[in-house]
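User: Study the chain.
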Amino acid sequence: MLNLNYIRSQFPGLETDWVLLDNAGGSQIAKPVVDRINEHFYTSNVQLDGSYPHSVLAKERHDEAHRKLAEWINASDPRELVMGSSTSLLVRILADNFRRILRDGDEIIVTNCDHEANIGAWRDLGNYGFIVKEWQLNPDTLRLESKDLEELLTEKTKMVAFTAASNVLGMLNPVKEFTRIAHKYGAMVCVDAVAYTPHRLVNVKDTDVDFIVFSFYKTYGPHYAMMYGKLNILELLPGFNHFFIKDPPYKFQPGNYNFEFCHGLGALPDYFADMAEKHGYNGEDNRRDKFRYIYSLIAKHEEKLSKKVLDYLNTRNDIKIIGPTEYSSDIRVPTISFVQKNRDSREITLKTDEHKVAIRWGHFYAYRLIQDLGLAKQNGVVRISMVHYNTLEEVERLFRALDHAL
């Protein structure tokens, strides 16, 4: 079991009388990350690649952070990590690169259920002579189906963009399977892992994804983002920086990247490795093994939280859960959305605010999904989003607030 007292001590933002269950909108930042950000400001807040000691130290720190982040997602080379201000911007930069190398008639496949960050930039390529196809959820299962993807793929398909986990449905998608199917037709994949990374360990080698993007501010870090891309592909793309900057990742990072955030984020893999040791890991000194160990404990804890919430919602005849109604760590993460019949979703969250329980309403930038599900008129869904630092006691407070709100 997770030691919640220890874990919560690592997140000073939890020292509040509010219950914070809007983590898919933004998680709390881990104290070790903040400490290293401050360390950069106080001791190495200079430009990199200089000959003087402060600059040498800054470069060493940032190289180390890139190595740790690469190890965390199982990337082969730190040069495969492109840093940027947001997932939306990083996908825009990537799509612009593809705009310059695709040919008329080339095809892009997007879903109708992703966050707009991984839809809009690719759809915009339709304005340049490329064909954009929509891979739609099965309306009965609310799942993306492999057979539907195969029907859309042709030898002209160059990119398939989909999500690893829906930020509304909580649904996990079989990334490895979808990637294998796309590769069979010669297409690349761009995977949005924003709603996945707080709950599951990314493994870019195992899934064989070409690109994967996620935001750190939803994964216990600052407002920053990272894109992984296979090095051989990044080297071939034209880039998005000054003409004389030819090498990845810098050629995709105009104005370079945020040094203080990068150094701070080196503490994030350390947090997970340290937490594994504090929770009984006794295997070899292998950080990937430690990551797998602690993420398995996180999944089990989140399963307890989610089952409790789903059981509560399933007892009410006036509630419709939008997504899987039962919990299994194989099919969903603890992001749970629902609507109440004939009720505006915004009204419900305003009522839970009165009990100092923070949940959220809206479309959550999965605008097309909410439209297609016919939920826009009632202000989208109510979303409860939990992570590993939330407790069963907080869930009980949520129930008391929902009893009042519903």
In short: The longest strand covers residues 157-163. Residues 33-269 form a domain with the Aspartate Aminotransferase; domain 2 fold (CATH 3.40.640.10). The mean pLDDT is 96.
